[in-house]
Write a structure and sequence with these properties.
Radius of gyration: 24 Å
Shape: globular
Distance between the termini: 40 Å
Structural class: alpha/beta
Bound molecules: aspartic acid
Number of helices: 14
CATH class of the largest domain: Alpha Beta
Helix content: 25-40%
Low-confidence stretches: none
CATH topology of the largest domain: Carbamate kinase
Number of domains: 2
Strand content: 15-25%
Largest sheet: 8 strands, mixed
Number of strands: 15
Order of helices and strands: EHEHHHHEHHEEEHEEHHEEEHEHEHEEH
């Protein structure tokens, strides 16, 4: 049995949390490979090391030197070292790293040092091997992870190691430079490692006891999701439920490796299990979770006999394509078609240009634009098997006095997306939650 454990920023925040990690790892011999993030916040208002490194890079770019900001970063690691009885080693490591940063002077390199240092300290404290991600995570020419090469390198490096710590968040590109993932990318590293070693489970240790059925800032203490499928997770995280980096699903899904979200601060909690397929055991709720985001724009087009006009959608999409705009949804009717787009993509006059170009391209009878739309995704495999889910959903929304602007039911029947005015967002989420989780 092999488990790959990724520990997030709050789990790596200081010496005390690292000592917790030590206990967690010791408790289970299957926890062989650990992937770590850079130290995150210790308390609200604290800085994440990665954010400090961004500041440091800016300072260096602007001709400044590694003064105060580096000191701040160094202090974080030093006090960690002191707490764990590794002061001398951490000091030496910090000196070396400072020189490396000054020599390389590159954004990706500087940012990667949080995970590098965290990994080194963790490995030293736990008395296990350290594996530099630079040697095992490879990006190809296209900027994406070269999966085959990476898996081979990882297998080779980890083979025969009893236990190891791998620094998260970065790797090396085709030109031999350090390259980072997008923010939160240690989740992706963890998934890649899990896949490479054919892990039985990918444990993602964070500071919450799993996925909640909806945003706790909107509904106080919502139910925890005990298990969900990769597909449901993808839908929920795409729509803003942020526990796992959305790209971290792909490597493990390919190999049917389940993920468990666990809480470093409450290791006895069961967390949330993410499975390749919906859990067949137990009663299936129609709705697994609710997520959403504000600030979308809907461009609505109407033209009679649109259905018979070949190339209508193609020409509209071409306008979006030429502006480099991606759209989220495209609900359509016989003579209508709408595009739901993140409002940010249309800012700075782009919306007006796009409208004009669509007019010219397809001469619609009507083109209307609704901005300030919030999207709410109601997600669950159980929906397709339960009669009346849509009716319950829409009557719950109607009963709260909210007007639905748009509906899109994914063809997989895994989700229903509802568009409402931004100002009705929270109220709608609450009403939907009440309907499906409180009754
Ligand atoms: N430290 C990086 C960040 O804050 C990556 C990670 O923690 O996964 O985004």
């Amino acid at each position: 049995m092999i488990k790959v454990c990724k520990f997030g920023g709050t789990s790596m925040a200081d010496g005390t949390t690292l000592a917790r990690i030590g206990k967690i790892v010791e408790a289970d011999p299957a926890r062989k490979f650990l992937v770590v993030s850079a130290p995150g916040k210790r308390y609200s208002g604290d800085s994440k090391v990665t954010d400090l490194l961004i500041e440091l890079h800016r300072e260096l770019e602007g001709g400044g030197h590694v003064g105060e900001i580096y000191e701040k970063i160094a202090r974080r690691f030093l006090s960690m070292g002191e707490e764990l009885g590794l002061k001398g080693e951490v000091e030496a490591l910090l000196e070396e790293t400072k020189e490396d940063i000054l020599r390389e002077k590159k954004y990706d390199f500087t940012l990667s040092r949080g995970e590098y240092l965290a990994g080194k300290v963790a490995a030293r404290y736990l008395g296990i091997s350290f594996v530099d991600a630079r040697e095992v995570i490879r990006f190809g020419e296209n900027g994406r992870v070269d999966a085959e090469r990476t898996y081979a390198l990882l297998r080779n490096a980890l083979q025969g190691l009893e236990r190891a710590v791998i620094a998260g968040f970065y790797g090396e590109d085709a030109a031999g430079n350090v390259k980072i993932f997008s923010r939160g990318g240690s989740d992706v590293t963890g998934a890649i490692v899990a896949r490479a070693v054919h892990a039985d489970l990918y444990e993602n240790w964070t500071d919450v006891s799993g996925f909640l059925a909806c945003d706790p800032r909107i509904v106080p203490s919502p139910a925890r999701i005990r298990s969900l499928s990769y597909k449901e997770l993808r839908e929920l995280s795409y729509m803003g439920a942020n526990v796992l980096h959305s790209e971290s699903i792909f490597p493990v899904r390919e190999a049917d490796i389940p993920i468990r979200i666990l809480n470093t601060f409450r290791p006895e909690d069961e967390g949330t299990l993410i499975l390749p397929a919906p859990d067949a055991s137990g009663a299936l709720r129609p709705v697994t979770g609710i997520a959403g985001k504000k600030n979308f724009t809907v461009i609505f087009l109407e033209k009679s006999l649109m259905n018979a006009e070949i190339g209508f959608a193609y020409r509209v999409l071409d306008v979006l394509f030429r502006h480099g705009i991606s759209f989220e949804h495209m609900p359509s009717g016989i003579d209508t078609m709408s595009f739901v787009i993140d409002s940010e993509e249309l800012s700075g006059g782009t919306l007006e240009e796009v409208e004009r170009e669509i007019e010219e391209a397809v001469h619609p009878d009507k083109i209307s634009v609704f901005s300030d739309v919030a999207l709410i995704a109601v997600v669950g495999h159980g929906m397709s098997r339960t009669v009346g889910t849509a009716a319950r959903l829409f009557s719950a929304i109607a009963n709260t006095g909210v007007n639905v602007r748009m509906i899109d039911q994914g063809s997989s029947e895994l989700n229903i997306i509802v568009g409402v005015d931004n100002m009705h967002y929270e109220r709608t989420v609450r009403a939907v939650y009440e309907e499906f989780f409180k009754k």
